[in-house]
Amino acid sequence: MKNNILSKIIIGGLLFTSFYGNAQKTNLEVDVTETITKIQPTMFGLFFEDINFAADGGLYAEMIKNRSFEFEKPLMGWEQPNTKRSSLNMNSGVATPIKVAENETNPNFCRVLINDDKGYAIINEGFRGMGVKKDAKYNLSLKAANHNGAIKKIIIQLIDKDKKVIGETSIVPVSNEWKSYSTQFTATQTEAKAKLKITFEGTGTIDLDMISLFPEDTWKSRKNGLRKDLVQLLYDMKPGFLRFPGGCIVEGRTLADRYQWKKSVGDIENRRTMMNRWNVEFNHKQTPDYFQSFGLGFYEYFQLSEDIGATPLPILSCGMACQYNTGELAPIEELDPYIQDALDLIQFANGAEDTPWGKLRSDMGHPKPFNLKYIGVGNEQWGPDYIERYKVFEKAIKTKYPNIIIVSGSGPSPDGEHFDFAMAELKKLNAELIDEHYYKSPQWFRENASRYDNYDRKGPKIFAGEYAAQSVSGANPNNRNNWECAFSEAAFMTGLERNAEVVNMTSYAPLMAHEDAWQWTPDMIWFNNLEAYGSANYYVQKLFSTNKGTDLLNITKEGKPLTGQNDLYVSAVKDINTKEIIIKLVNTAVKSQDITIDLKGSKLAAKGSVITLTSPNLQDENTFAEPKKISPKENVYNLKGEKAEINLPSYSVIVLKFKIK
Ligand code: AHR
Predict the structure, then answer these.
(1) Whose alpha carbon is nearest atom 8 of ligand 1?
(2) Atom of ligand 1 nearest to the CA of 249
(3) Does residue 7 register a pLDDT over 50?
(4) Which is the closest atom of ligand 1 to the Cα of 379?
(5) For ligand 1, atom 6, which residue shows the shortest CA distance?
(6) Model confidence at 24, in pLDDT bands (50, 70, 90)?
């Protein structure tokens, strides 16, 4: 494999297929009647983390950055272009952040003093601009307290990059006291980098807070909801589960800034904004304006899981801050609040309406339980401190909720001292589902397709919870979502599927990244304020997820699984619902290869289908300009007799589907 890729690079990109002689033939056999094991419905899922502006500035469709003036610098994201000195040595107007300490969750608001009619404005820059679409409707809401009725009108305008007005509305602030206002308007132009400009009629003082702008057209038309195009990409994958809210964001750089789910539910206004830990994590990508509004909080995550048909998988802090940062530890005797968070979360998700947390869920709009089955204890912790804490959590959760399946972690690497220690300890504890993470080279993925072949079938089940091939190296800003990474993941995924007896859950990570505001690459889905596309890796994930089947079949070459011999990888499943046999083949060679598959057992219909995902060059990628450059193409496949013959193009992922008669 390595040699083939090297040869191709040396040859300078020319595909000298003939150099390798005629396409070689590989004969495979599959017994389509014998189920090896059931495939878990959760097999292929999603890992969501608020990294790369994935939540605020991404999935959560709010367009105003720092709507409640709660960033560390309360006016971050807001400009005041006309605040200049006049001849009277006064500002035409000025905005000043005011803090009301008694309001613990939303202490700041913005006091605006308008001195004259010289056009004082405050402007919100959005999340690297605001994406607005011609003829689309936008909902603006804000809270205002108009001192002595001084301000006659608040004028709200969307402006394009040349400051031209492309949408306008106004609000008459009628009350001295805090009051909520809302209005809707239509954009007259499509613009990727719009801003929201607010001007005033009248002079005097007005207080403003919770200035919010959402598109009317959100996922499921939910008011102030999620970005439709992004959720659609997730929905289309038919994911088995949704893990949230991360990732390292769960842990926090310190315990104080860990993710606390209770602070992410209830009234939006009272969800206290806080720093996003990724804002200063990497020198190569500082994003000091990255905060979490928690508008996308745990209720919304559960709702999203339900919407996209995914089992919810929340992960909680186990009292250990990120070990790459402070590694701060909650002493064992002070773990109670952390454990209580886990128990209360289960009640929030599943409890009856007459329980305190079940009531909150119901009050928020979901009387029925969310049917939570899994909970994760810690994200990517390692060492004895983790095991010690895991034991306490396990005891408390299982005592109260014996049927909840606990996900434990094996640290950040799929091998080495920390991994070996965690696996040995968790095995002793009969852990149910262990999360493994691998951010490795494409070559590693190709070479590790047999990773799980020898895992103990009676031991803990595996959640391959975070993985992605890194074209350069882990957490390197030059990593690309290129085709070599994607097909190498596909090769590895045949190994995940072949080992469905052990591997019950898998997810690529991270999920999403904003074109102008990311910190980590590669990522499965890329978006800007107007558009989104799935990377080649997305299409690999989607092919597996939408063709996962229900029963694992054994497919072999001379009695052995194909795990990279001749640069070939294969797995096979049956779907008892759609009555299909589905075979996944990955050719990681520079040359095409002929395959014959002997399909033994049931009678199959002559007309099947073949889905091909391929691209000629290792470095090929999808982009905003060519979002579907690497995407599946489906064709009819005609089966003659019991043997399927197929030519696998170079660098290809193929899904063959046959109907059982
Ligand atoms: O996916 C990005 C990060 O990688 C996750 O937050 C963390 O769990 C892992 O180290």
Answers:
(1) 247
(2) 6
(3) no
(4) 8
(5) 247
(6) low
**Residue nearest to ligand 1 atom 3, measured at CA:** 247
- Separation of CA 272 and ligand 1 centre (Å): 24
* Total residue length of the chain: 661
What number does the ligand 1 atom closest to the CA of 246 have? 6
Q: What is the pLDDT of residue 272?
A: 96
Cα of 221 from ligand 1 centre, angstroms: 31
Spatial CA neighbour of 200 closest among 168, 159, 163, 152: 152
From CA 123, how far away is CA 77, in angstroms rounded? Answer: 8
Which structural domains are found in the chain, ordered by start?
A: 2-39+552-659 (2.60.40.1180), 46-61+221-548 (3.20.20.80), 78-215 (2.60.120.260)
Alpha helices in 209-297 (DSSP H): 228-235, 248-251
Task: Check residue 211 and give left, alpha or beta (phi > 0: left; psi -120 to 50: alpha).
Answer: beta
| pLDDT tens per residue, range 634-645 | 999 999 888 999
Best residue among 519, 520, 537 to mutate for probing ligand 1, ranked by most atoms within 8 Å of CB:
520
Substitution candidate for ligand 1 out of 466, 479, 519, 523 with most atoms within 8 A of CB:
466
Cβ-proximal residues to 121 (8 Å cutoff; 6+ apart), any chain: 80, 81, 82, 197, 198, 199
**Residues 368-378: tens digit of each pLDDT:** 999 999 999 99
Cα–Cα nearest to 133, from 218, 45, 43: 218
**Predicted local confidence at residue 90, as pLDDT:** 58
In this prediction, residue 642 carries a pLDDT of 87
* Tens of pLDDT, residues 535-594: 999 999 999 999 999 999 999 999 999 999 999 999 999 999 999 999 999 999 999 999
The residues annotated as belonging to the active site are: 380
The pLDDT-based confidence of 464 (bands split at 50, 70, 90) is very high
pLDDT of 18 above 70: no
The amino acid occupying position 427 is K
Pocket of ligand 1 (CB under 6 A): 49, 51, 246-248, 379-380, 412, 466, 509-510, 520
With CA atoms as reference, report the closest residue to 529 among 181, 183, 187.
187
Residue whose Cα lies nearest atom 1 of ligand 1: it is 510
pLDDT (tens digit per residue) in 497-512: 999 999 999 999 999 9
